[in-house]
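Feature request disguised as a bug report, sorry. It would help if multi-protein outputs had a clear separator. Right now it looks like this:
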Amino acid sequence: MLTEKTSDQPEPEAEGSAAEGTAVGPEENVPGPEAEPPAEPLETIPVSEERAEKAGFGGQLLEACPACGTLMDVTQQAPFAQIFCPSCGQNLRARKQFNNYRLIELLGEGGMGSVFKAVDCNLNRNVALKILKKELSANEDEKAKLAEEARITASINHPHVVKVFLFGEDHGQFYLAMELVGKGTLDHLMTLQRRVGEAQMLEVGIQIAQGLEAALEHGLIHRDIKPGNILFADSHSAKLVDFGLAIVMDEAASKTGEIWGTPYYIAPEKLDNLPEDFRSDIYSLGGTLFHALSGRPPYEAETASMVALKQLKSLPVSLQAFAPDVSSETAYVINRMLAKNPDERYNSYHELIEHLSYARHKLLERAQKPHKPKERVVMETQSSKNLTAFLSLGLLLAILTCGGMVYAFRDKIFGPDGRDKPVAAATYSATELKDMFDQGVQLLAGRQFDEARAEFARLAALPGTAQPMKNWIWMNEALATLLAGDSEKAASLFESIAREDLYSTAEADSVEANFFVQASKTLSKPAAPIPASITNLYSNQNPEAFGLLCFALHDWEAGLLQEAGPILQAFSRSRVQEPNEWILKYKPLAAVYLEDFNKLNPLESELTRVGDAASAQTLLEKVRLARASVQSGSRVTDRLDAIEKLLIAKGAKP
């Protein structure tokens, strides 16, 4: 739960029975034996049927010790709590029976209550029994609202929504009997695998979106979608749990000025106390899929206040920045789901499901190997012989006809002297080529590295491209290749440009021509650091400014962030005139990296001054806050992880 004054830590990942393959409920944390509080002293009541009956009518909940028969008042004990008989010391569990449901084992605990594996003694079947906290039944209005939500939820009959069988009350505590789903949660799967397979997560996304669509037809939105609320019936079937409960917690929290939700996945409009609709669930589902695919949530804000969380969620997020191997189709869908403005997200679940399905289809299509078609066995018959004869005759007549037409129009086809007329080569005008080049620049500036790489490679293959445009296309292709994660291939492309030597020896072209050769030689060594002093050799007020950008990102991709930062700063001050003003379109791209550098740099400086556990702890909090807003990808987060380990070694507590 988030409040304006404080921020809660996210609930720990599910353990215990979930790991053993038993059914688990949403957002559950299974405590170990040592986590149970010591049993409180129980009131001992003499064995008397009259006294027990009166106590029962008076609202007391009495249980008899199986060893000595002593009646104990367990009214205030939590369900399944460990207690000891005050008479004989017998160890037993309190409140194992809720109406006709007998509790078997605790599966987990969460913000709304506890989930148990239970047996329905009337129908002799196993169920998941969610026993809600007592505060959820504080008054009659809340009781009625909770009952109505449970009724609506029970009316949803969909294979990807956990079925609610019954809503009931026993001694002032509400419970829901639900379908028992036995293969753990997505949260647990993410703990085991860190990054879940793209095809599997697209399948999960499709199924959960289908379940949400079915709920929306009944007027329900979920309000708390997260990995802990997605359960697996088997390896190919996901189910969403806790419909109808989140709204009760949400309204209860609103009365105290709090916001109910999980910081990782909560929609921005909810932080601003704006109305929610199904698009808020789309945002939370997008955050869940982002986390599963990249191994980290879109915004790491476990220690952030609400103010900081609002600021973080105002920033754009890119899945490919943290999971560059994810297909562009999948990245497009997830990024759109996570748009800050609800109007920019999907306007219906039908459209979302269609796009998720398309992304999965394209992914599987690329994964399939082409199969060689089987050769057909053709048997010649008399009919086929006759058909062949007719076709041959028709072909002969066509040839003769064409020959006659060529002879008749020979002066138009050939010149008067009988020579062929020249055929114009299929080329693009300079304007058309510039437009296509600008499209590639736009893709690269928008951090669509794979798409930009493909576009520049296509342009490089066009015949007859004049210099210096040809070299500019090659340089941009090499930069896009570097940022797409293939530094070796990028180095090879830069080396090819250097081997071409000067494209012109004219004095007017000398700066640009020498730049291509010298800069490409420097960039053709992927492991060699490029020092910040290179800014003294290259100007930021002519085409050489593009070299500064390449040098900075070369060092960045090599993990040399301290060398890259000053070069990025020099590029950010660049001023370039026609015809190369397109270089300035890369300033927003550089700004993303420079912003992350400016977050990291003071932390690096402060690290050198850490002398005790207290200062290490203070810096650790700053590191975690910085990590939550990283946009440029894994180079900065890897360094922040390394700093965190050093701080823990100096006494900071994780």
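(second protein starts here, but nothing in the output says so)
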Amino acid sequence: MALDRRELLTCFLGAPAAMLLAGCGGGTRDPGPIPGELVGAGHELGHRLRDLRSIPRPAEDRWQTVEVAIVGGGVAGLSAARRLSRGKLDDYVLLELEEQPGGTARSGPSYPWGAHYLPAPMSHQQDIIELLEEMELLEGRDDAGHPLVAEQHLCRDPHERLFYRGRWTEGLYLYDGATAEDRRQLELFEQLVAQWVDWRDGQGRRAFQLPMAEASDDASVRDLDKLSLGDWLRQHQLDSPRLKWLVNYSCLDDYGLTADQTSAWAGLFYFCARVRQAGEESQPFITWPEGNGRLVRQLARGATGKIETSRAVVNIAAQDDGGDGSDGERRLEVIALDQDGKAWGYRARRVIFAAPQFLTRHVIQDWREKPPEHVAAFEYGSWMVANLHLSERPMSHGFPLCWDNVIYDSPALGYVVSTHQSDVEYGPTVLTYYYPLAGDSPREVRDRLLGTGQPEWAEIAVSDLQRAHVDFRQQVERVDVMRWGHAMVRARTGFLFGGDRERAAQPYRDIYFAHSDLSGLPLFEEAFYRGNGAADAVLRSLGRDA
């Protein structure tokens, strides 16, 4: 059912915001369409394929024989491809549903469509360090062995600001007007986090580490997964509204979940894993105008096999009779459809499944009738990302424009400025606006996301930001919208150490799994780790050096 403007804003921004904005454009009157388009049609193709009644058979001239087929061209799939190439295996094909690889790390020419930064790695993250060295981003190491990132690639000042009651203030904690009790609770929270930062188990492992597979498996740490971060705050009698807002924002930012939905382990991981030791700042952010699209391009350059986009895999089946019969060895048959509906076939000795786990029950033939129980444990959150093209930098009152700009009472996460890394402080820019849908039912919020089109999402984004900027609507030239229906795995309470992730990571009939959802954390570092690990396992299974 179509909503008028006030109903739309009430639904997505809340009643107070809708009332405040009622006068802008005449209340229910639509102030006019905002130019732009929906970007990425993968979910529409994916839904059509999910509902296929039968699997089409490719014509004989549309079959290829390869050593390895990689399903999914996000960070995990590209990392696996690069790793195979580094292992001297180039006879592979990577199949990606979208028109360009990258998944939620893909980008436009000078702005992100999802992930937009990478924390500087610590000394133990050798694979990440090697990748950054390839990109010529490092300037050596410090005395402790930690890499030194070239300054031009680190997020420049000012980093972040918060809009509250008509004014922008520095940072993301609302110090203005904070009571003595607010400040006491913030200090206590920071002390508790510092204790976990310095915590080590009997083997010297940290409680929270990147990648998470290298973190401690001590029961006292893993038991944090049994309660939500909201419960953890209540256990420590931390109920300051300002602290709760900061913690809730942090969970939404990394996981698309509220603090009451997020595993306490995942929530504390956010605050601890990127801090070397108590008393230090978190690792600085590496960022570019196009966000993690820069990293995607580097991974793709290192992948010397075939990358075929707009190919949606619809079936993976084991052929016990040798598949094509050419070498008498068992092969896997992978069938994909292109955007024109043509079927293409690939006979591979191994498959790396680098797509989300929920797709396995639709794609792996053996699992279509009765998928393993662990598949149902994986839930995925929905996000809307909009890129707003402006004719001029937005005007604001208080602290100046930053890289990250957040509105205190908005359900969205605010925006990052694509031109922030430049030295130019005026002229056109692109703002990337993030809106996570954090409802309790993934299916309902996904329907809500996909049932809302570009005109409505553009109006939501512009109206939300109009509260913080004078004449903002007049500066907007176009708003393009990306709807991520399965944006990231939900690190909800009880999921991380319930056993389902471990079961999902086990190979099945020469199919090896690689995706950040196997870690339960939707992070570049985890996707990179899982892609590399799956490729190494495949290389070893084929008798090659990993």
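Even a blank line would do. Unrelated, but nice: The CA atoms of residues 77 and 354 lie 5 Å apart.
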